[in-house]
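hi support,

uploading two proteins for the ticket. first:
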Amino acid sequence: MRNRISCSAQELSQLDADMLQSVVGGTVFEEGHQYFSAQRVRILDADRTQITAEVNGVYGVYTQIIKLRAGTLSTRCSCPSTEQPFCRHCVAVLLHQFHNGSSLKPGPKEAPKDPAPPSDPQVRTAGPYAEESAGASDLNFWEAILFIDWIQKAVGLLGKEATLPPVPGSLGGVAREWVGVVERLNSQCLEGEEDRIDGLRSLQSAEGMIDKLTKELEALKMESEVAQQNCRVLEKKVKQLQDSLAEVSDTSN
């Protein structure tokens, strides 16, 4: 679900609880506040004008992308909710940002630097294998089965549907991070496609307006020509009346 509304705030952390409640209404706000209070929000990436997050909902984990650009608040959530102007999960993320986002730096974030390699050659050689082993230990057999089942259902929907299949609540660790990556890629693909469609609609609307104005201009031009013809006819009649008056005046003299 994707929505856009006008917003006067300059940073997402300026959207306080009262403002959010006035926008979404009491019921949606209370649901979002419960998610926030229960610490179901997980921030994946954030600065002062953009957030990518996940919220552990009742039926699965949903991904949110929220942006504040040029007076417009754009929200997207992978949940199937029809709540307007945005859902309870986005409310929870914005509440989290309001309470925790004041220290974030503006603009793109600097990529973390790679740690310096260890001085011991043996440790340096063992490092990558140790990390690989640690990553593998985070993904157990059951989680792998759940992830494979989920990705097989999701593949056919990538770039086509905003809502991917529900993520099993028991899925965690590395597999859950992979799910988040897939969901973010899907959201980015859909956002680009929707922006393209919005641009085409705006262009079609502009073309329709230009066509309408052109027709109105042609109609005004025709009305102007008719008015000019009527003026010429009136001028002739006035000239005839003046000549007639002049003849009557000469006759009477």
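and the second one:
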Amino acid sequence: MLSISPTFPTPNTFHNRYQISMSPRGLLLFGTNTNLIRCARCVYSRKNAYISRITTITTTASSSSSSSGKKNLLQQQLDSNRIKNRRECLPIPTAIIAVKSAGGGDENSLYKKLEVDFETKIKRYTKFEMISCPQNPKNEKGIEEQKESEGERVMKKIDSRDFVVLMCERGQSYTSERFASDVLCKSGDLGHGRLVFVIGGPFGHGEEVRARADVSLRLSEMVMNHRVARMVLLEQIYRAWTIVRGEPYHQ
């Protein structure tokens, strides 16, 4: 604890030792030899500045301590949430089946780099693969025919023991925590051979694929580019694993 004890002359000593004179600059003190000793205004200004400086230091220290306490409380809450969401989860093999354009733009280096980054992170927890199906493989003119031809290719990639999640703008909205428990963990708990996410072409999914889905899920109420959708889905799969493992990635 800091204490302030500046030494100033007592009133009696003050009057005995100094002669007092007024000037336009304030109160002047003269010693017996008439030399200027000090401006009283400066004395008390320095005293006040000293007190103000100490007060500022004390206030800053108090504020810092309060801020540190709030951070510690927040960290405790985050740790508690991680513990609450943590649970046992079988490392069920996971795959994303995506209908992709044959154009070179789909392999843009930025998107590809992000895909590989998240795929590598997911593989720390379980087997993972990205499977591509061609867009409009039969060059159909009608939209329904195109969806069905894409659906045929998708169905060839799906096994009877797979837990299939259809990515659809009319699907259900999940929080990240619910996605981790009701999709990632549930698929393993029910004994499925693989967790499969299906991203359709530009016009959606064929009827056969819709009928095969165990869950329909949407990433957002907004429509997004299919490459962006893959990025978001990959990130959420990785996030789901960090949630069930109680790791700090998900705050």
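thanks. also noticed: Confidence is low (pLDDT under 50) at residues 1-8, 13-41.
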